[in-house]
Every structure is written in C-alpha cells, then in structure tokens.
Amino acid sequence: MIVASNLGKRYPGGYEAVRDVSFAIDAGQMVFITGHSGAGKTTLIKLIASIERPTAGSLVVNGQNLSALRRSAIPYVRRHLGMVFQDQKLLFDRSALDNVLLPLQIAGLPRREAIRRASAALDKVGLLAREKARPIALSGGEQQRLAIARAVVNRPTILIADEPTGNLDAESASEILELFADFNRVGVTVVVATHDQSWIERYHANVLRLDHGRLAA
Amino acid sequence: MSAWLSQHRAALASAFRRLWATPLNTLLSLLVIGIALTLPGFGYVALDNLRDLGNGASSVQQISLFMNLDASKKEVGEIENRLKQATTGNWRFVPKEEALKRMQASEGMAEIVASLPRNPLPDAFIIEPTNSEPEALEILRKEIAGWPKVAHVQLDSAWVKRFDAFLKLAKLALWMLAGIFAAGLVAVTFNTIRLQVMAQAAEIEVARMIGATDAFIRRPFYYYGALQGALGGLLAAGLVLGALHLLAEPVGDLAALYGGSFGLRLPGVVEIVALAASGAFLGWLGAQLSVSLSLRKLD
User: Last residue of a domain, which of B156, B179, B210?
Assistant: First the structure.
C-alpha cells in the first residue's frame, strides 16, 4: 500500500530531513512513526501525503509513484488519503458540518448525498449533535474529532495523522486513538506520527522509528 | 456532468455569499466599477443620438444653384437644358417670385418683405442627384459653378461631411476613454480579488490539502470578479439611464426652440446587457490575472 525505497528529502538550503528510508506498509496495517522532535516524522508524513516531494529514492502510495507524479495529478491522489494535522486546520468561518462537507464538495458529490455522508461521519466521531456549532465553540478534543470526521468522510483507504494528540489531555487523546483503531479495524490503513510511547504498547502496532532522518533498527 | 454543474453552482453561490458578506466593500467596488463604465457608456449613447440627429438631417443630399439677379428667362432656360444633360436625378426650378411668396408666408417676414423696394431673391434650382457620394457631389458642384450666370452653388452636404469627421473623432476619443477605464476596472478587480485570496489563505490551504484542484480553488474567484463586473455594469446602465432621463426634457425644449422635434434615444436591452457583459468580462480578466499571481505566492 505504501512502499518507500531509499527515500530522501533534502530541503532547499541543504537540510536533509529524511535520508535513505525504506519500508513497506501493507493494506490494513496500523503503523506508528516515532522519534525525537526533528527526527523527520512530519516530513515523512508530508511525503506520504504528497504535500512534499521526494528528492531521492521512490515512494509508492496506492500504486502511484509520488516522485514521478505530475503536479496536476496530486489533488486526485490526496482524495484517497485522509489527513489529520496536529493543528487540525479547521475552517473557523463555517459550521462543523460545513467543514466536513468540504472534501465532498471538492469531489463534486451532489449536495443531498454529501450531507448524508457528512452527518454519518460526524455521528461516527460523536459530534452529530454539534453539527451546527462553529469549531471555535468546540473543545480541543472535539476539534480533533471534527478533523478526523473531515479526513474520513471521503472513505479514504489510508488515514494519515501527524501528532493528532499533541495538544490534548490524556482522556481526549485516548478517545482519538480509539477512533483510529476503529477505522483500522474496518480495513483502513492507518499511519500516525507520534512521540507517545504508551500508544505503541497499547495497540501492538508496527513502528517506524526515525533518528535524525534515518530509520532506526 | 451533474458534478461539474453542481460545482459551478456552488462556486457561483459562494461568490454571491462573499459579495454579500462585506456589503460596504462590495458597494464601494461596485461604485468604482459603475462610474468607470458610466462615462464610456454615456459617451456611446450620446454619440448614438448625435448620429441619429445627423442621419435625420442629411438623408436628402441637395445642391442649391442660385442664378445671378440679372439673369434673363432665356439664360435660365439655358441652365435648365444643361441640367437635363448633366445630372441624373431630380431637380426643381424655384422662380424668384415663388421664393418671395414663400418668404412672405413665413411668420414675421411678411412686413419685412412688404417693405422691400424690389425682389432681392434670385431664381434658383434645387437639385437632388441620385448619386449622393460626397465626391460625386463635389465634382457636380464645381461643374455647375462654371456655368454662365450662375452666382453661387451650395452643396448642402458639406456640413454633413464635417459632422461625420467630428463623429469619427469623437468615436476614437470614446474608444480611448473606454480603454483607459477598462484598464482601471481590471485593476480594481485585481485588487479586490487579491485581498479575497489573502483573506481566504487558510481555506485555500485546507482545500488543497484535501485534494482540491486548482480549478476548484480558482472558480469562485472568477465568478466573484465576473459577478462584480456585471453588477457594476448594471449600475452603470442605471446611471446612464438616470442621466438621460434628467436630460430628456431640456433636450426636447432645446430642439423645440430650433423648430424641430428630437427625442433622446435611450439605450435598449441589448446595450444594457452589453454593458453588463463587458463589465463581467473585464472583471473575469482581472480575477484571472489576480488569482494566478496571488496563488503563486501561496504555493
């Protein structure tokens, strides 16, 4: 599902965030990317999400070689991924429902069908009662769950999250994690970057540990 | 297809919402665009009316031939023969007696005519050549002027030529004015769209992250620019109509003072739509330039 070989990313200016990384993630796996801050977790996540482009090696996601992708093809690749960010990247000028509707509008779904699906996604993360609320009125945990609803509403095959619990208290964090595990159970490949060791022990998930941009054994 | 349509509908709706969300800004932009389009629009209507006026007056091309006062009947007959050979078209002899009678009939002239010791008017011919090309008329005029006992030949179309030249000049000036204001309109739209893109940087970033194509991101801005331009065009049409409405009566009075009747021709639906459409096109153009530049900055 996700195959990296000798993957590298060097930023303009010479900083090498990821070097010579090779791994394979099978469909339906749940994988944690861990490591100290600055180890390259976020860069690796961005590479998988085609937000950044590899400068060395190759990265194949969903059968698409991202290093050879035309710029105009990137949006269609992203539609098959669900992305959750540490800072959520919610839109504060619209309701929770409208936030979740955005990916479906982008995909061009008819409005009625889109609302049905968005409501289902909100229900799944336990926010259906708050669909009319603006994100600013939601707690940190609720905001992150809203971001997850937006990430999964397109029924992606891969769910990618960058430090999704970074700003949350332990209880909210564990709710979020439980949600990821739920999606994994129904067959979604889940890749989460985190520095939270307790998660890894709890879910016996596969781990990619990065150290200064390289995979640690 | 239906997905495509619904995306366009959504983009249009979003453009309306954005216009509506900042009513004061929208109103100011519309005023700027409206005024920029009003001047060329008004100029166009004014020229159109002038052309109407010119056409009405010059539909009959005439040459007036005045004989010398001392020309005898025989000499007049000679000219008549020459006219028969020279011109293809109608001509009419106006004897001096008839001319005097007509003058007497004019209001306020009877007393003046009565006080004259003798008839001061010459015999005359009014010629209406079939070939009314300005050049042909000019040649004919010169020929007739050389005939014996002809005092004066007047080509009544000379002023039409001058008027036409004036219209051409005014038209050119109008196009230049329109060009300048069109550039202004594009610049205004460019700026409002740039501010819009900046205000929506967060939304654009998120939309890109979750798979929005460039077309999806640009579309609402295009609609915004075009919509703003079209509304500005309609506002301009309203201003032109309002101005003409105010002018209609004074113009009518003025025409009546010159003994004519002249009604201002108001712009029709086609012209109003054309004004709105040019506004929309220029707005779209400004949006296109602005979005391309502004999005490059966000990349």
Answer: B156
B144 with B82, same domain?
yes
User: Six-digit token pair at B186?
Assistant: 């594009």
DSSP A96: H
Please name the residue of chain A whose CA is at the shortest distance from the CA of residue B11.
A105
Of residues B2, B59, B29, the one with CA closest to residue B186: B29
B8 contact residues in A (CB cutoff 8 A): none
| Least CB–CB distance from A106: residue in B4, B205, B207 | B207
pLDDT single digits (tens) B12-48: 888 888 889 888 989 999 999 999 999 998 888 888 8
Q: Express each pLDDT in A29-85 by its tens digit.
A: 999 999 888 888 999 999 999 888 999 999 999 888 988 888 888 899 888 899 998
Task: Kindly write down the DSSP assignment for every residue of A157-192, as one continuous string.
Answer: SEEEEESTTTTS-HHHHHHHHHHHHHHHHTT-EEEE
Contacts with B, A 101-120, CB within 8 Å = 102-103, 105-111
In chain B, residues with a C-beta closer than 8 Å to the C-beta of A51 are: 209
Report chain B residues whose CB lies below 8 A from the CB of A72. 213-214
ipTM above 0.90, yes or no: no
Closest Cβ opposite residue B6 in set A51, A108, A150: A108
Q: A206-211 and A189-193: which strand pairing? A: unpaired
Chain A partners of B205 at a C-beta cutoff of 8 Å?
Answer: 89
Beta bridge partner(s), residue A31: A191, A206
Count A/B contacts: CB-CB distance under 8 Å.
57
The per-residue pLDDT for range B62-113, each reduced to its tens digit, is 788 888 888 888 888 888 888 887 766 788 888 888 888 888 777 677 778 7
What CATH number matches the domain at A1-80+157-217, 3.40.50.300, 3.40.50.2000, 2.30.110.10, 3.30.530.20? 3.40.50.300
pTM of the entire structure?
0.73
